[in-house]
Design goal:
Structural class: mainly beta
Number of helices: 1
Strand order of the largest sheet: 5-4-1-8-10
Number of domains: 1
Radius of gyration: 15 Å
Shape: globular
Length: 145
């Protein structure tokens, strides 16, 4: 079974200012927030690598220290506010970015894969929970050109 390393970039578009955001590395209670940044209201980008193997149905299956969830339902977390270690905020959220939109063809292109995700939710606070909820505008993984 061939394994390929792919670089992903998540861009949070205009998250609310004054809130810390970071990429979650590790699972459960044993994790750290890396690439932590405090938002100034401008886009924030998180770059990281995942390993791709072939799943049972032939689709890409993702593994690595940033990958969460069971096979076929993989995702990464963006930690927000207190979840990212910020102490002077009332925000305590995580944003779940699904990897299911990444196709075998995208993996085989061996280029950076990009997701531009709204950084602000409908309540005016940081986007949270599942990034493909109906209330959040549609986005998808794409090849970075």
């Amino acid at each position: 079974m061939e394994r390929i390393e792919v670089t992903l970039r998540i861009v949070l578009q205009q998250p609310p200012p004054g809130v810390d955001f970071g990429l979650q590395k590790g699972r459960g209670r044993i994790y750290e927030t890396v690439q932590k940044e405090r938002s100034k209201g401008e886009d924030l980008a998180f770059n990281f690598a995942v390993t791709v193997k072939t799943g049972k149905d032939g689709s890409p299956d993702f593994v690595g220290p940033f990958v969460q969830g069971p096979s076929g339902e993989r995702f990464v977390y963006i930690d927000i506010g207190t979840c990212a270690g910020q102490t002077n905020t009332h925000w305590s959220r995580r944003l779940k970015i699904p990897l299911s939109g990444i196709t075998r063809e995208m993996v085989n292109a061996k280029v950076l894969l990009l997701a531009r995700v709204p950084g602000t939710g409908t309540d005016g606070g940081p986007s949270c929970a599942y990034a493909w909820r109906p209330r959040i505008p549609a986005w998808q993984w794409q090849l970075d050109s």
